[in-house]
Amino acid sequence: MSQRDRDREVTRRALIRWSLAAGAALGVGRSRILDVLERTGGPAIAQAAAVATRKRSVHLRGVNGGLAWFQLLWPHNDIAVARDTSDQVPFHLPGDHRTVAGTGGTLTLCGDSPFAALPPQLQMTAFMAGSNEAHTSKPRSIARALSGDSLFAIAAVLQNGNPGVVPVIAVDDSEYGTAPGAPAAAVVPSGADIVGLFNSAASRAGSLLATTAHADLYRARYATLAALNRASERSTTRHAYATGKSAARFLGTNLSAQLQIQPADEARYGIDAAMRRDIAEIGRTLIVCAKAFQMGLTSSLILPGLRDDPHQAFTDPTGLRATTTGLKRVLDGFMADLASRTDSVTGVKLSDDIVITIDGDTPKTPLDRNNWLDDTPANANWMYVYGGGKLKTGWFGGVTRSGATTGFDPATGAAKAYDGDLQAKAACAAVAYAIARGDLRAVQDFSRIDISGLIVA
After folding, report:
1. Which pTM does this prediction carry?
2. Cβ(365)–Cβ(66) under 8 Å?
3. Could you report the per-residue pLDDT of 200-224, keeping only the tens digit for each?
4. Do residues 70 and 166 make contact, with C-beta atoms less than 8 angstroms apart?
């Protein structure tokens, strides 16, 4: 590709991002934006803005021991069947479980498992992978398994072709990492600050095309602006654009308003005054995320899961259950929210267009709830993934009550001796495959591991 073509591609992407921001602020649907882009910038630009070629992704990171809470939502199969509480395994609902024959391994669900009503092919995938890293806020044995490239940055590279204003958002100290070709992440202190982030992005919308060597795209930018202004049919909007003095501020204010969290949003996610503050914060972040996904503003979110160290969790059954049910409510609320929203261009439900990963530093031992120790058999770790139908579901590898720890063969999915590094590489490649909608060639830019046993063609 020549430098001229590269410059043109950059400005074309900028026009698309600017138009999506402006349209979202004005309340103009994406289908209308595409009509305007086709008339003003040509069919090629409209087509580029139309389709999210990769799935969107959300990455929850349970750090400083916080990953352990998710072990209670999706327990190891042999641990969950220990009905006698005298076994002292760290499972809080003995007898309250059911086994799902996943499309890969077996998955055991309990009363607090999110997504439990989904069919087997849309259940969670659990990969034994990586090593126990207690205690750290930046676990890397899984996320950096592919030659040091970050799983989250790889996801953003794959999503580069998606239209959007801010490609990836990292909340608080969530580590984004690097990969060749990865866009910069926008970092915000909390989920609530995502609203302010897009306010700022929209305010700078004009600058996205401030420098361009292509007069046709430069003219298309202003023609698109005028067309969107007419589509809004709001006198205040027309005045703002006519004067040109407060257009950026107007865009930011209106975009911010569309992303604001409303009481009805919190009710749908089960957020109330009794919910743990950090779980409520996860829920509020996911509320804004769902809205931003629907408006085509971003493709990826990295956020903290729980960050506490629940050594004494089983000494407080009431607090423990408040945590597990709270996590279920916000995660189920998020999936239901996505299922209620569709891409206005493709008509696809956002719930069919999402990959979710949950990883962390230590899942804690699945063998003894007393002081719920950090040590795990074989120093193992694991990651939960919602693959949206592109990954085989259930456990790949696992831990039994005797402490026997197995991994998996990525090529077949069969049980194999635990090799945390190899299986972490395979797990990351599988996540990339799901985000790439099954485009194995795109995954091979980062990994050549045969993952035939983990994926759905």
Report:
1. 0.81
2. no
3. 444 343 433 223 333 344 344 445 5
4. no
